[in-house]
C-alpha cells in the first residue's frame, strides 16, 4: 500500500471515529440557542464588504474536561487544569484587538479575575449598615476587573461559553469552528484546554449511580477520537491553529510536541512541562522552536504576555502570506 492510500485509510478511520462519537453523544441542552449566539457574534465582527476593516477572532479553550461515569452523573474522571493560562491569554488577545470566544470549564479561572482572591465575594466586599461596598484593599483591583470585563462584553469582543464534560466540549468546539469558518485566515484556535484522552461512551454508560457495594470496579475506557485533524481539514481549514502539549517528563516533551505539530498539521504547538509551565514554554513551529520566558524583572509578569505577542505576530504573518 502506497503512502497516499495509507493516508486516505487513516483519514477514513478518523472520520468514522469522530462521526460515531458525535452520533452517540448526549445532545446539548440548548443547541439551537447556542448556534444562534455564535452566529450573531461572528456576524457582528465580520466585515460588511472586502473594503471594511477585518477583525481577527480567536477561540480560546480553557480548563479541563470531565468524563462522566454514569449518565445521571455522580462520579467522573477529571483533567487537571485551573484555567489560568486560558483566562490570562484571553485578556492579552483582547488587548491585541481580537474578538475572543472563551470556551471554558465551569468553575475555572475567568478573564480579569486572576488578581482577585479565591473567595472574592466574601473577601472583597463588606457590609456597611444597609450598603455593600468594596474593601479598600481590593478597591482598585475590583474596579479595573469590572471595567475591563464590561468593556469587552459591551463592545461585542468577548463571548463566554461554559462546558463541563468531554461531550459538551467537543460538540461546542465543532459549533464554534463551523461558525468562524467563513472568516478564513482571520480565525485562530488557541486550544489550551486539558482535554480527556479516554472516556466512557454514552451508550456503554450505566444510567444510575454506580454502587460501591458491588465490589471492585472494572471499567474499560475508550480513546477519545482525535479532533485536531478534522478541525484542520474540515471544520475550519483556513484557521490558524495552536495546540498545547503538557508533559511531566521533560525528556519526551519536545518529541511529543514535534509529533503533534506534524501529525495534526498545527501551525504551532506550545510545549510546557508541569512544574515549569508558569515560568517558560517552548513554541514549536515548522520554522523552528522559540523559548518564551516570564520576565524576572517586571512585577506581576507572566509567561502568557510574551507568548500571546509572539502568536499574534505569527498569525499576522499567516494572514498576509500568499
Automatic annotation (TrEMBL):
<dbReference type="Pfam" id="PF04127">
    <property type="entry name" value="DFP"/>
</dbReference>
<dbReference type="InterPro" id="IPR035929">
    <property type="entry name" value="CoaB-like_sf"/>
</dbReference>
<dbReference type="GO" id="GO:0015937">
    <property type="term" value="P:coenzyme A biosynthetic process"/>
</dbReference>
<feature type="domain" description="DNA/pantothenate metabolism flavoprotein C-terminal">
    <location>
        <begin position="175"/>
        <end position="278"/>
    </location>
</feature>
<dbReference type="InterPro" id="IPR007085">
    <property type="entry name" value="DNA/pantothenate-metab_flavo_C"/>
</dbReference>
<dbReference type="GO" id="GO:0003824">
    <property type="term" value="F:catalytic activity"/>
</dbReference>
<protein>
    <recommendedName>
        <fullName>DNA/pantothenate metabolism flavoprotein C-terminal domain-containing protein</fullName>
    </recommendedName>
</protein>
<comment type="similarity">
    <text>Belongs to the PPC synthetase family.</text>
</comment>
Amino acid at each position: 500500500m502506497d503512502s497516499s492510500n495509507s493516508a486516505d485509510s487513516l483519514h477514513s478511520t478518523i472520520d468514522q471515529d469522530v462521526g460515531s462519537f458525535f452520533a452517540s453523544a448526549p445532545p446539548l441542552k440548548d443547541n439551537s440557542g447556542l448556534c444562534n449566539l455564535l452566529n450573531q457574534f461572528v456576524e457582528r465582527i465580520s466585515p460588511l464588504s472586502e473594503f471594511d476593516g477585518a477583525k481577527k477572532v480567536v477561540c480560546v479553550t480553557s480548563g479541563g474536561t470531565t468524563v462522566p461515569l454514569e449518565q445521571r452523573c455522580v462520579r467522573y474522571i477529571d483533567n487537571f487544569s485551573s484555567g489560568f493560562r486560558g483566562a490570562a491569554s484571553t485578556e492579552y488577545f483582547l488587548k491585541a484587538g481580537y474578538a475572543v470566544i472563551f470556551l471554558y470549564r465551569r468553575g475555572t479561572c475567568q478573564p480579569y479575575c486572576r488578581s482577585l482572591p479565591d473567595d472574592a465575594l466574601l473577601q472583597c466586599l463588606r457590609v456597611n449598615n444597609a450598603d455593600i461596598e468594596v474593601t479598600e484593599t481590593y478597591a482598585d483591583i475590583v474596579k479595573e476587573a469590572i471595567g475591563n470585563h464590561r468593556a469587552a462584553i459591551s463592545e461585542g469582543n468577548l463571548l463566554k461559553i461554559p462546558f463541563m464534560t468531554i461531550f459538551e466540549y467537543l460538540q461546542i468546539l465543532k459549533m464554534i469552528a463551523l461558525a468562524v469558518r467563513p472568516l478564513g485566515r482571520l480565525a485562530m484556535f488557541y486550544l489550551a484546554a486539558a482535554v480527556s484522552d479516554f472516556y466512557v461512551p454514552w451508550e456503554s454508560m450505566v444510567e444510575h449511580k454506580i454502587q460501591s457495594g458491588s465490589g471492585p470496579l472494572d471499567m474499560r475506557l475508550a480513546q477519545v477520537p482525535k479532533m485536531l485533524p478534522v478541525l484542520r481539514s474540515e471544520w475550519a481549514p483556513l484557521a490558524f491553529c495552536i495546540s498545547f502539549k503538557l508533559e511531566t517528563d521533560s525528556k519526551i516533551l519536545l518529541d511529543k510536541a514535534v509529533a503533534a505539530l506534524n501529525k495534526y498539521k498545527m501551525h504551532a504547538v506550545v510545549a510546557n512541562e508541569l512544574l515549569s509551565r508558569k515560568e517558560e514554554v517552548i513554541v514549536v513551529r515548522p520554522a523552528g522552536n522559540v523559548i518564551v520566558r516570564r520576565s524576572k524583572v517586571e512585577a506581576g509578569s507572566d509567561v502568557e504576555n510574551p507568548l500571546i505577542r509572539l502568536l499574534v505576530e505569527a498569525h499576522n504573518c499567516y494572514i498576509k502570506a500568499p
